[in-house]
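Retro notes
What went well: the complex prediction finally ran end to end.
Inputs used:
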Amino acid sequence: MNWNNIRLVYFKEILGAIRDRRTLISMIIIPLVFYPLLFFGIGYFTMTGQQKTESLPSIIAVHGEESAPGLIEILKEEEKIQLTGMPVNNQEGLESGEIYLLIEIPDDFNINKNLNVNQSIIIQYDSTSQYSQTARRRIINVLEKYRQQIVQMRLEEVDLSIDYILPFNEEWMDVSSAERKTGSVLGMLLPYIIVILIFVGAMHSAVDITAGEKERGTLATLLVSQLSRLEIVLGKYLTVITLSFTSMLLGLIGLSIAFLTPAYAFGELSLIKINLSLYSFFLFFLVLAPLVGLASSILLLVGIFARNNKEASTYVTPIYMGAIFLGMISLSQGTELSEVMFFIPILNNSVAFKELLMGVIDWGHILSTLFSNIVIALIALLFAARLFSRENVLFRS
Amino acid sequence: MIQVNNLKKVFNDKKRGRITAVNNISFHAREGEVFGLLGPNGAGKTTTLRILATMMAPTSGEVIVNEYNVVKAAHKVRQNIGFLSSETGLYDRFTPRETVRFFGKINGMNDRDIDDRINEIFNILGMNAFGDVRVDKLSTGMKQKLSIARAIIHNPPVLIFDEPTVGLDVITARVVIEYIKEFRKQGKCIIFSTHHMHEAEKLCDTIAIIHLGKLLSAGSLEKLKRDVRLDDLEEIFFKLIETENNNK
């Protein structure tokens, strides 16, 4: 094996990839332009939508208002509630959006007479309407105020203070640091996003320089040169690793731009506070680099096996879906893996990475992740090199 | 230069079962000779040439290229051959100069030798005008010149051309034929496959007619004419194939 030959194949493939417009779009334009725009756009529209619903008063109809004058009084005092005197046709008014919420007070509703009877007020709203949801939230507050008013009045009648029925209050204090909060939010999202970025980066290049070469008929020229099969495979493998790693980095830069812009998609992340030392970068690398190596070797293997680009894409899709599934498990906040499960690649990378983001350094987890990824990547790579020597794979038609 | 003894290649096809693509063929080709493999599609020409080029291993038999065995010394064989076929595509995103330079390097040449050789080949093949234009912008004829340049950059003594004129217009095909003649003058051994009678007639010192994996006859055009007692290569070709089909 000659390293110079591997280098020659590597630089040839990298140059080819750089000159490919598809690489430019998928690796540069999408992460650096599209991601920020996408998140900014989502954030902007969500934010403006919320602002609009918050600023408008909720139009509410009350049926049977004479039965609960106290409630009507409170409703009238509320700045963001507008009572409509329109004749009420429950369903139609709600469905057409003319009213956002309807309160129906029964005719026999009387807070003074029926002291021991639980009376009901029926409230109709439309859960699919943002305006109706906002009105619901506002009415809940109003009803609570009304309820307290009644309770207070009744307690006063029997000479009791409100503390009689509220023996204690509670105070909740969040002791998590800003760092840990950021880690927790990032820990949910990032591992999953990184799995996608790594696979997307590796997918296109791995297929293009294997099955694509077969399809274009350029592979034969390499096979009759003085390069050994292993040199060709390693040169291509390093190319896929480079492109996959670059895709991950550019993707992360794009997402950082998206998260850090005073945009609105992830409000809590715009106040990102995370201490990044060289050591933590080293640990991130230790957990993520094996995943890049693993994804590249598996996708390269598939690309070599496939007859052409189309067939390779068919094989790659379920692998990509599987990777997304494993990455997705880390999205749930309570994920804790058993020691054995830390040998499942992709799942272990994402969970170990999540732990690091939360400030947990578990060397057992890091080493199992490293070990399982490297072993599987090596097996896939050796298998790829063997496939590259098999004429029934190279000349399948 | 090329010695093929009792070469056999059997494929196991899931649908069609065992297929004998090359059935016990033997021939030899010398330096300064153009050796033509003439046969219809599916005759076994491409398989034979792929084995000669070390891309496939024979099922049995022996192939020696410039004193090296294609199985035992595949790497050495590759140093001694230049391979060209309709399948050997080009990298669209590279220029001819970059392409030829890359193949010079992976064939173990140093930068200086590559530069000298590129100048020489580009002059001979008339490639200077498009030497720095990306391959995807080149015409078919230009691409075929580049394919030849790439195959001969390391100046191999043996050239293996698998249907080098397939899909080319008459002018480009003629250019290829002229270069094959030129390589013969340089003392190279050229083995090429074709199913065009006139190409074989005009170019080959030795013609080997193969059909269904078997070598039906081999020799100079004159020898074939004497053996089959016909004057025209096309008639000879069909007569041999007909006889073979009747014998089956």
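What we learned: The two ends of chain B are 33 Å apart (CA to CA).
What to try next: split runs per interface for comparison.
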